[in-house]
Amino acid sequence: MKQIIQKIESRFEQMGRWIHVHPKRVILVMLLFFAILASNLPSIQVDTSTEAFFSENDQTRIAYDKFREQFGRDEIVLALIHPQKVFDIEFLKKLKAFHDDLEEEVPHLDEVQSLINVTAMRGEGGELIIEELMADWPEDDAGVKDLKERVLRNKFYRNFLVSEDGQYTSVVIRSNAFSDVGKDMDQEGILEEGFSDEEDISLSDNDNPQLLTEEENSEFVEAIQALAERHRNSEFSIDLGGSPVMVHDLKKAMFSDMPVFVLASLGVIALLLVILFRRLSGLVLPILTVIFSLLTALGLVAATGTKMTIVMQILPSFLLAVGIGYSVHLLVIYYRHLRDHGDKGEAIAFAMGHSGLAILITSLTTAGGLLSFVPVKVAPVSDLGLFGAAGVLLCVFFTLVLLPALLSVLPEGKPAVVADKLHMQDTSRPQLSFADRMLKGCGNFAVNRPWTVIVISVLIALMSSFGAAQLRFSHNPVAWLPDDHSLRNATDAINDHMKGSAAIELIVERGEENAVKDPEFMKRLDEFNSFSEGTSYNRISVGKSSSVVDVVKEINQVLNEDREEFYRVPLDRGMIAQELLLFENGGTDDLENLVNTPFSKARVTLKTTWVDANQYTGLLLKLERKIEELFGQEKSYVVTGLIPIMVKTITFLMEGMLISYLIAGVVITLLMIFLLADFRLGLWSMIPNFLPILTGLGVMGMLDLPLDAMSILVGSIAIGLAVDDTVHFMHNFLRNQHIHQDVQVAVEKTLTSTGRAMLLTTIVLSAGFFIFIISSMNNLISFGLITGLTIIIALFGDILLAPAMMALIYKKRPSNSIKKETL
Amino acid sequence: MMSNKIISNTISITIFSILISGTTMFPEKVFALNGREIMEKVNARDTGDRSITEMEMILIDKKGNKRVRKLKTFGLEKGKDSLSLMFFLSPADVRNTGFLTFDYDESGKDDDQWLFLPALRKTKRIAAGDKSGSFMGSDLNYSDMTSPDLNLYEYTLMKETEVKGQKVWQIKSVPKTKAEAEKSGYSKSVVFIRQDNYVMIRGVRWVHKKKRNKYLDVRKLEKIDGIWVSTELHVTTKSGKKTLHKTILKQKNVHFNQDEVNEDLFSIRRLEKGL
Question: A693: which of A136, A652, B6, B41 lies 20 to 30 Å off by Cα?
Fold first, then answer.
């Protein structure tokens, strides 16, 4: 094993030499490679939707898309309005103005529904009237009172267009489900389009229509937000809620955050490089290398059509922080050799031979940690795993190929070299002598009092386990926005007054045409409606359950002189069919939302409050049991819609975390064993790696931070990075131990040489993660904090726990100590 | 003497020039009919009286699923008003459901409509001030089935063109008021009228407040008992290029001047009797 390692190291040295001889060629090829991939960047796409958490091949998503194709977009924007009095002529006029403006100005609009245009059915005398609720405006107080009574009495309007207490009203705005792209046709175009000579009745040109794009959604939401702003005043307060708004606001937050992250990362990195190297090349070259790597990686993302999601937004600053570490390790050795011996080519070769393998291995461990996410079924997490790993490998590739070439080509600034000659010792630079003393101090303490360190570590482990046991999974994209964000207030208000805007959708497929009209089936739909509206679990309840049976019952009542006892499902099938015919004739296309054209499928929409998806599992289980009981015998049924999708996301997160952490743990342990060429040592060396992760999770648990799509990444990312320090430590420790045969000396030598680079990369990496604290999104703030913390703890693991363990292990190995007397 | 001749010549030339220039500058007004006039003739066209027809309505959704409805219809012209009686023949669960409609010519007078549901064994009067509603779930509105009040629309003759080898006028019709647009359900229409028989052979309608269009296409036009009858009409609702829904309306066994079709037929009593 040791021979293999030595062979590889000498290969790296040769490579360094070769690059030094042909630098321009190398630079050209690398730039070409960069250009090819980075040229894809402009075509990069963003996706902050809820369904983006699923890959396109996932069953859950396919079912959801199919549902939307049939019934349109289930996601609505709800404008909640709280005037002094809803049932007031002046207010109603303002409402109409708002409603009309919405219809006029919002693009990609399917429909606007409010008290102004909602359908109302009533029987008057022998007459059946189907018209808009406000077809005749009330003219006096009595009229207003009458209107209020009619509205509050109606099951359909309650908790949808008006709150139960009548104090709030809402305007429901629905966008098209499908994309308009390429559909802007003028009069000529429309005239041309219409008439084909085919007798063919099939409408196959509609296969695979494209769903509404995120750009179109943003246009839709922004127009509504602008109108709300225009109409809003102290007497007409408007709260905008609903998932389309969430998707748009998250995207906006992401767009404003990402450039800031990248710039901040670059700023921090530049500062640290200046302090460390104090020369132009030491600042410019690493940054250049890492930027090339980043752009190439992003180009790869764009080229594969992968979308930038909320999770993926950490990729740029992550790669910057990680990539810099590789350059730093290489440059530290290079500059020192250059200072001591003056020959550039030799310095490059030496640095490559000395550090190349270690750098490569650290990149492999990081990539391995990231790749462990690929099997996770939550698409953005899986994508980050894949492209994060690719990015890391690209970074190391550029570092080991482009950087040496750039070093060869660029002239070295003399002044810095001269200044360096004045500081012959490693520990001479004033800023870092404190660091060296600290590192040395820790090392000595650990070697001399290993059991103290071990005991403290065990205590920390126990406390962390306790904290980690408190962790719970979560998925609530709305909560990712800041606490005072308008959408959060709106969501709470809508939950409180309209019993929510989120939905669970049940589609029952009977298979036969007109089978939905069967009275017995209608009765079961009715039973399900009643059951769901009474169902709650913990604090979640179903505010409203609607399906086609509501229409039938209402018509039945209206046709029978509005007598309440007729608000029921008719016994006769003919009656149901004729009532539905009447409804179809009434001018609304409401029926489209409730059944499919052949009347073989029925839809039930359960409206619920929007809370964290983790609170729905109990409710869904209850509902599913009843669904199976009532509809288990039907051809098929599917439960879909936003809530089930979010709950499924959590399930996938849980499964994914388990798998990913397991894979990462195993793969990295194997790598350590390979590198150290020793099975037991490899295993032991994982303890300083796992402990920081456990501690990070423990802190999360104690701070009541949830495990969501962002924070489950902490473990695998942190371990991939933390183990780098251990690799460097162990690699150098073993070498020093072999030479000096004295644990204390070996530790001291290791920590004062590689230790400085370890310290620096820890600072850079943790800074890179702490940058996320400035994010507009709560989940990113927590993620950045915890990951940064974990990395710092990992450093302490390597300068305290690892030496302590080595002291214990090597004191017990008589065969290793040739010179027993070191004291 | 000389001056008289000059004057009369001048006058002739002037008149002639005006006529000529009138022709080239305002062809519509001088030589041909304008939009409104054409539409008047379309409205005035004899669409037959005392008719009995079997109507087949095929409703097709965006996935190609079809629903078929069969009706028997009776029609009578009472002065300028049109009376119609329709019964469903199939599907079975709506058989004998009937519609009785009085379509009044008088401007501003709403139609009367009654609906008979056999299962309910009752007739209900339907307030149908709003004609923007769909006719039996098809792609046709009530406003498509009745003649418009010409005074409420602005008609413009766009050009003369050809449809299926026949010369037609292409006329744009726009409701004069927002109220009429809302009532009829359309904010604009372009219709193609055959020049030989004043039949509307094609039409494109812009649906009010929605980004949709309806395309009406008369696929079969037959002359029965001297009356031009659209025996097959295709109506397609599209949003841009995407078809949302389609209706095929066929008329079979069309007979006019039937003895049994008289005013007594168009009554609630007859409606409740069914077929």
Answer: A652
